[in-house]
Backbone:
């Protein structure tokens, strides 16, 4: 049997530039920030159960900070992954879906039940309705993320809805005897925030805001003046009340704009 030629036995050297498949894994920094969001939501729930409503409200806003940072850090460092998106969505459900609902429940349901069983059921259903709408809002966002207009959110974002509910409870931390009217207002705010999440109103996302873009000096001066004004108002006003006013204005802006446009169309049609 004749030996094989040398060329047939030779092995080609491996190319040092050959692209090797990347190992599947998770990135530490963005997912650590997402964990901070999840922890803040968990802390809000525990604090509400222990009747510490001011720390519970603060924790929801801290969760919003973590939620804002994790996505931006992932985009800046190019560490976006499918795992991170799913993890972020689950953390949002806890921090902006369950936590505000439980905070509102613990703050008001026990008190409103004193006015009758039916009132207690109203509060229970309002809080559950909020939790359900938060889940639906997140599911719709994930399903339409690829084709949605990045400039706008369809429906009130869950962090903004959570800020309204948590801000209301936080602002009412010294309101030991709110009465039936105050309790009804609290659960109405919770239910309305939930309804706005699953609405079709368009809310600006501010995702097109670019810090690297050149701006006019007047615009920069205006931003500085706004920041100074906010700092003055924060020192003169109760912070939770101010935060509630800011996010409440944002939530009401879309329905108001829709109503104004609707009235203009009716006037044009009548003319």
Residues:
């Amino acid at each position: 049997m004749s030996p094989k030629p040398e060329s047939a036995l030779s092995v080609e050297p491996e190319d040092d530039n050959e692209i090797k498949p990347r190992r599947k894994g998770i990135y530490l920094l963005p997912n650590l920030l997402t964990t901070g969001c999840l922890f803040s939501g968990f802390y809000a729930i525990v604090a509400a159960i222990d009747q510490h409503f001011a720390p519970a409200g603060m924790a929801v806003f801290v969760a919003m900070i973590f939620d804002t940072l994790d996505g931006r850090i992932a985009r800046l460092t190019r560490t976006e992954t499918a795992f991170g998106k799913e993890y972020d969505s689950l953390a949002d459900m806890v921090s902006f879906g369950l936590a505000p609902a439980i905070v509102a429940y613990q703050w008001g349901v026990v008190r409103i039940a004193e006015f009758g069983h039916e009132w207690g059921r109203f509060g229970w259903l309002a809080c559950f309705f909020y939790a359900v709408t938060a889940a639906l809002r997140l599911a719709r966002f994930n399903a339409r993320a690829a084709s949605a207009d990045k400039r706008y959110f369809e429906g009130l974002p869950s962090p903004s809805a959570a800020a309204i509910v948590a801000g209301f409870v936080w602002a009412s931390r010294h309101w030991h005897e709110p009465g039936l009217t105050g309790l009804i207002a609290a659960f109405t705010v919770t239910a309305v925030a939930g309804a706005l999440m699953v609405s079709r109103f368009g809310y600006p996302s501010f995702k097109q805001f670019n810090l690297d873009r050149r701006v006019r000096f007047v615009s920069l001066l205006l931003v500085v003046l706004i920041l100074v004004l906010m700092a003055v108002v924060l020192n003169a006003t109760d912070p939770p009340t101010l935060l509630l006013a800011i996010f409440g204005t944002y939530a009401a802006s879309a329905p108001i704009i829709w109503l104004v446009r609707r009235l203009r169309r009716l006037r044009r049609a009548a003319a």
Notes: Residues 27-270 form a domain with the Four Helix Bundle (Hemerythrin (Met), subunit A) fold (CATH 1.20.120.1760).
